[in-house]
Design brief:
This protein is of the alpha/beta class and 327 residues long. It is 38% helix and 15% strand. The protein has twelve helices and 13 strands. The strands form three sheets. An eight-stranded parallel beta sheet has the order 7-6-5-4-3-2-1-8. Helix 6 packs across helix 8.
């Protein structure tokens, strides 16, 4: 089901995958390490070799036990009360299992309810029923993030069926749909070119199709990873497109990308001004504002998202380009 939840998908911001074998995950959750990260995904799938699965599961349980000991101090990743643009007390935390059977196993882990939810990899109509069974023993409050990354996603008819299937399959809310760019490239026997943003590739065309298919059904989508650390200008160009398309967050592969994601999602003050004018209770049906025609009937959904984005990422002054980001 698509239903309201405590957090907004914009809180995903910069998302970092961390292999469950790592022993410093608690330091990240408690903000003693990578204090600016918005969300983390503890990976038991591609980032963990088959021989290390048992170790990864053991370390995940140890992490949950440690977390439970400190639950009163950092349990909720909430924004500081009455203060916009402040980092939450902890990042959002998700776990990515290898398969539905492992997800069923994780449901029995002690303190598993402490995490915010699960990433469901390689999900499509062919595996949807298995993932549905895998989720049956999870808390109804935990958030799900299915990942769109299989060859089936190149079929528009399949995607229409999947959008309907997502709305009916789970008791838990679907927080966002993750676009798995590298796996989608692999389905075409390709790798992302080093000198192009993703929107200049065949996967860019697919992203537009996915937006047109899933967003009208109420879903939010996240942007695929940019894996080249020596191309910051290209990275920012891609981020600009991500933001303009309404994608709610982006996977990062290195701490150096975190600040760039957060800057890209900052809202220009003039844009926030227009959004608030559209949402004003006394707004006219159509009116001129900042040399722009505004029409609340058609712009209200956009304006609401702008206000949500500004709440989590802060604002930027249009004139001097100074960022009012969280500190």
């Amino acid at each position: 089901m698509v239903k309201p939840h405590t957090h907004h998908p914009y809180q995903l911001g910069a998302s970092l995958y961390m292999p469950a074998t790592r022993q410093d995950i608690w330091q990240v959750i408690s903000r003693n390490k990578l204090p600016l990260i918005d969300s983390i995904i503890i990976c038991l799938e591609d980032a963990v070799s088959h021989s290390d699965v048992d170790l990864a599961l053991e370390r995940l349980q140890t992490l949950l036990n440690t977390w439970a000991e400190h639950v009163d101090t950092i349990n909720q990743p909430s924004i500081v009360a009455n203060t916009k643009a402040q980092h939450p007390t902890r990042p959002l935390v998700f776990v990515r299992p290898r398969n539905p059977a492992m997800l069923q196993q994780l449901a029995d882990f002690t303190h598993i309810d402490l995490i915010d939810g699960f990433v469901l990899p390689k999900i499509d109509m062919y595996s949807l029923s298995d993932w549905r069974m895998g989720c049956q023993n999870l808390s109804h409050d935990q958030l799900l993030m299915p990942t769109l990354e299989t060859a089936a996603l190149f079929d528009q008819q399949h995607n229409q069926e999947l959008a309907i299937g997502f709305k009916e399959a789970f008791s838990q809310p679907i927080f966002a749909l993750r676009i798995g760019g590298n796996d989608l490239f692999a389905a075409l026997r390709l790798r992302r070119p080093k000198n192009s943003i993703v929107y200049d590739t065949p996967i860019g065309n697919l992203i537009y199709q996915l937006l047109g298919c899933f967003v009208p059904h109420g879903f939010y989508l996240t942007a695929p990873v940019f894996e080249y650390l020596d191309q910051p200008t290209l990275f920012m160009q891609e981020l600009t497109r991500d933001v303009n398309l309404g994608l709610v967050g982006k996977t990062v592969i290195h701490p150096s990308q975190i600040a760039l994601v957060q800057q890209a999602y900052c809202v220009p003050l003039s844009t926030l001004d227009e959004a608030e004018a559209i949402l004003h209770s006394q707004a006219k049906a159509v009116f001129k504002y900042n040399n722009t025609m505004l029409e609340p009937a058609t712009h209200r959904a956009w304006a609401t998202e702008i206000v949500n984005r500004a709440e989590f990422f802060g604002t930027i002054n249009d004139n001097n380009r100074e960022y009012g980001t969280r500190e």
